[in-house]
Amino acid sequence: MTPATDASWLTPALVLACVGLFAVSLWSARTLIGWSAACGFAALAVPIGWFAEQMGASRGWFFGSYHYTNVLGPKIGDVPLAIPLMWFALTWLAWVMANLILWREPVVRGAGGGRRTLTALLAAMIVTAFDLGADPYFVFVLHAWVMTRTDGGWFGETLQGFVGWMVVSFFIVWLAQARVQLQQPGGNAAAQRRAALVPLAIYGSGMVFQMLFGSPVETKAIAFFAMGLPLLVALAAWWPWRASAAAQVSPQPLPLDAMAHQADPLADQAVARIVGPWPDAAGSAGAPPADGMARLTQATRCMSQWKFNGQLSGWVPAGGATDPLVAAALQDYLAQGSALPTWADAAKVARAEEIFMSEGPLSCTLLFCASLPQCYVLPWLAEVLHISGQLEAHTEYRIRQTAAMIFPVMMKGGLMDPQGSGVAQVLKVRLVHASVRHLILHGDPALVQASIPPGSRAGTGSDMHNALMAHGWNLQAGGLPCNQLELAYTLLTFGYVFLQGMRTMGLALPREDEEACLHTWNVMGHVLGLRPELMAHTMSEADELFARMQAYGRAQAVQPDVRPALGQALMGAMARAIRIPVIRQLPVPLAQWLIGAQSSHDIGIDQRVPWLTRLLFGAGRAIVGCVDGIGQLFAPGFSLARLFTRVIGYHLLSQFLLDQTRPINLPEHVLNPLQATVAGWHEEPRAPGWLNWLEDRLTTRGAWVGTMNRPAT
Question: Which one-letter DSSP state was computed for residue 708?
Answer without folding.
Answer: G
